[in-house]
Amino acid sequence: MFRLWAKEFKNNRLLKDITVCNKENDTRTHKIFQALDEICYQFDLGKPIWLDANIQDFKKYDKTRFTQDNFMEQIDFDYLEIHVIEED
Q: Has this prediction a pTM greater than 0.90?
């Protein structure tokens, strides 16, 4: 099973979080983007833009943060953090 945990933070406080599970037999990249689509739908957000720094962090730590620079619209939180917490 693949699980991705997403958290919204403002002023170093957790505003909300969600864990998305995916049991499908698909590539890791597809699972990540499907989970991110679900997260954005649940949090009512536009999809963030993956910058080079996000890609490097995600490859190295299985975790990254999306700030205002990653979103086209204005956001009312400091950052959205995603983290792979389980993968088979």
A: yes
